[in-house]
Structure formats: structure tokens, C-alpha cells
Amino acid sequence: MSMRHRRPHTALIVTALCLVATLTGCSGSGDGSPSSSSPPASPSAPASASLSSPSSSESGKGEVKVTIKGFAFHPATFEVSPGTKITVTNEDSATHTLTADDKSFDTGDLAQGKSATFTAPSKPGSYSYICTIHPNMKGTLTVR
């Protein structure tokens, strides 16, 4: 009889552990903690970053692709020539934006699977950007 009483407890414990693991895996993006900004994940992300050329030196005729995945921009920091076309694709289930702090560029809201293209500013400089919905998501666009 004692074995019968153990099995329901074991199943309950296993179920509880699975639930905790699931919730822990999903909670990193919404709590605003520094670990959710994902800079350490960047080294494994270059394949999904799809950066057409590290510095599009084709006088603005190049194109750069930025992917939003795992509540982070890939690449988060990149360099382009003035007038370069930048396409941002959201691969997360949550809606995101890529918006310059000075509002010089903004994709608007991008739902899952959606893309938007904007043109890099013509003035050289460093442009910080965020997701206005999830401000812990940050990056820098450098125009040279």
C-alpha cells in the first residue's frame, strides 16, 4: 500500500518541476532584469543576424537585415553607410519595435513574422535604439 501512495506524490512532484521549468524559461523577458537583455547570446546569433555586409560601403545602396529573436536584436550593434536600407524581421511571438532614441527611425509595431524596412540616417553618427514595448531591448546603429 505504501507504493500506491508514493506514485501519486512522485507524479505530482514531476509535474510541479516541469511547470517550474516552463515558467522559468518564459519569465526572463518580462521582468526587466539585466540578464534578459541577452548580450551573451549574441555570439551564437550571427547566423540568424543576416547582416548583408558589416559596413555597407556602397553609398547607401547596401541592405542590412536585423532579426528580433529571444527578446533581443541580432545584430544589436552594427555599422552602415548613410542611406542604407535596413530590414527588421520579428521572429518572436511578442510584438516589438526598433525605434531610435531620437525618433529618427522607427519600424512601428511588428507582430510575429512581420518585417519593416527603413533607411539609415544620412548624417554620420551613433544612433541608440530600443524596442518601445520592451525598453530593456537595446542596440546601436552607427552611420559612417
TrEMBL record:
<feature type="domain" description="EfeO-type cupredoxin-like">
    <location>
        <begin position="51"/>
        <end position="143"/>
    </location>
</feature>
<feature type="signal peptide">
    <location>
        <begin position="1"/>
        <end position="29"/>
    </location>
</feature>
<keyword id="KW-0732">Signal</keyword>
<dbReference type="InterPro" id="IPR035668">
    <property type="entry name" value="Amicyanin"/>
</dbReference>
<dbReference type="InterPro" id="IPR052721">
    <property type="entry name" value="ET_Amicyanin"/>
</dbReference>
<feature type="compositionally biased region" description="Low complexity">
    <location>
        <begin position="32"/>
        <end position="59"/>
    </location>
</feature>
<dbReference type="InterPro" id="IPR008972">
    <property type="entry name" value="Cupredoxin"/>
</dbReference>
<dbReference type="Pfam" id="PF13473">
    <property type="entry name" value="Cupredoxin_1"/>
</dbReference>
<dbReference type="InterPro" id="IPR028096">
    <property type="entry name" value="EfeO_Cupredoxin"/>
</dbReference>
<feature type="region of interest" description="Disordered">
    <location>
        <begin position="28"/>
        <end position="61"/>
    </location>
</feature>
<protein>
    <submittedName>
        <fullName>Cupredoxin family copper-binding protein</fullName>
    </submittedName>
</protein>
